[in-house]
Fold each of these.
Amino acid sequence: MVSSTDDPTFVKGNRFVEIGIEYALLGNYLVEFFPWMKYIPSSVASWKKLAEERHKEFSDMFVGLFREVENRIVMTLIRYSLPLRSPIM
C-alpha cells in the first residue's frame, strides 16, 4: 500500500510513466526510422543498453508487486480457511 508520494513504490511507478511517455514520443530514437538498428549489439548502441536496463528494472518492480499481492492473497486464504484436522488414528 502506498502511504505517501515519497513511497518508493509510488516514485518508481511515476518514473515508469515518465519513461513510457518519453519512449512513446515519435522521433526520440533513430531506431524508429531505421529498423535494422535493432540488430546492433548493446555494447555499441547505448540507447539499446539503456532500454535493456530499464526493461529489467521495471520487470523486477512489477514482478515484485505481483509477488506481494500473491502473498497477501495466500495469507488471507490461510487465515480464513477451515482449520486443518489431524487424521484419526
Note: Residues 2 and 35 are 40 Å apart (CA to CA).
Amino acid sequence: MAVQTDFIAAVNQIAAERNIDIDEVVTAIADAIKTGFRQNFPEESNVNLEVRILAGQGQISVLQIKKIVEKVTDKEGEINLKDAQKLSSNSKLGDELEIDITPEGDFGRVAAQSAKQVILQKIREAERETQLREYNDRIGEVEFAVVQRMDGDSVIWEVGRAIALMPAEDRIPSEFYRSGSRHKVLLKEIKVLPKGKTLLVSRSDPGFLKALFFLEVPELASESVEIKAIAREAGSRTKVAVVSNVDGIDPIGSCVGQRGIRINAIMNELRIGEREEKIDIIAWDDDLRRFIANALSPAEVLEVRLTNEEYKEAVLVVEDEQLSLAIGKDGQNVRLAAKLTGWKLDIVGKSEAADMDKRAKPAKPAKIAKAKKAKAEDPEAVVEVAVEEVAKSKKKTVTKAATKTPAKIKEVAVKAEKKPAKAEVAKEKKVVEKATKEKKVVEKAKKAKTE
C-alpha cells in the first residue's frame, strides 16, 4: 500500500476547480490507474484487479482478487486453501482473497502518465454530468444562452456553465445566429448522443412560446387562465387557444395586455431582424363547433358541419368574399386551425355550400314521375308506385296488400288502425289511402269520358 500525498492533493484540486464531487474524481482515476497498471505490467493483464483509493489518507492500493478453492485450475484467478491461509489465517473455501500487488516507488505519477487520456476523459464526463444535473429539474423552462459557434446546421450554445446543442429542426428558419449574441432558449431535454449526454435547447418548439407566455402573463402562473392548445409554424405564425378558469377574467385580454404590451414583448423576443412571428389568440370553447369556428379567426365562419366524427372531418362555410382570408397564404390559416383543433377542415364558400345542399337532396324516382304523368291513362299506375315506395321503406305488409285489389288495400288499412299508433304505420296508411283515392278518381273520369 503506497502513500501518494502529491497525487491525492492533485485529485482534491481537480475536484475543487471543476466543481465535481471528489468521489466521482476518485472513481474516474481508479479506472485510469487500472488501465495504466495493465499497460506498465503486461504480465498482469489477465488478472482480476481492483484499485482502491483512500482519499482521506492519501493511500492507493492495487489488489489482485483470487478465489479460494481446493484444486487450482486457473492460476491467475484461483488460489488453494493452504496458500491462502499463509497470506490470511481467516481464509475459507469459496472466499475471495485480496492480494496487494501495489508497485513500489512513485506509482501515482507513473500510473497517471500512462493513463493520462483516460483520466482526462473520465473527468470531462464527470464534469459534464455535474453540469447537466443542474438542469434536470429545469427542463421546460426558458433560459438566456450565448451563441458559441455553428456546427453545420446546428448551433452550439453556452447556457450557464453547460454547453448545449440546438439541432437544425429546433432553429427558427428565418433566424441568423451571430457568434456571441444572447437569446432566450427553451431547455428542451437531456439526451444521450454519440458524444455523451447533451443538453438540447430549442426556439422553434411550441413549448418555447408557451414558456414565454408564462413569463409575461401572471394569470397563467396563477392558473386563472390556461393555455389549452398551441399550433405553431416557427418564424411565421402561431395560434394559441386560451380559456379562463375564473369568472370575470378575459383570457384573450389577459394574454394581449393593456395596449398589447404583453403580446408585443413576446413577439419582440421572437423577432430577429425585421421579420416577426404573428400570434393569434383564440378563445377555447367546450362546444366543438364554436371552437372550430374560432380557430379559423380572423375569418368569420357561418356554419360548421361535422361530416365525419369518427375520422374528425368537418366542412366550414364562410362568405364567398372571405374564402381567401379563411384559407390564408399558402393555406397557412386553415392548416394552423386544423393543427389547433385536431380536425381535418375543408373550407367552402356560401354559394358552393348551397350547391352542395342541392346535390345532396335525393331526386324523385323516375317511375314515380312517369306514373304521375300517365295516371289518367293507367289507373293501376298510382297503386304500383305506392307499392314501390312502401317496399323501399321495408313495409312488407302494406306492399303485399297493395299489389292486390283496392278492397284488400282497405282491409290492410283497417288492420293498421288496430296496431299501436306509431308514426311509421300512419305514414303507410296515408300512402295507401292516397293511392286508392287517386285510382277511384281516374276510374270515374274514364267512365264519364266513355259515356
Note: The longest helix spans residues 423-450.
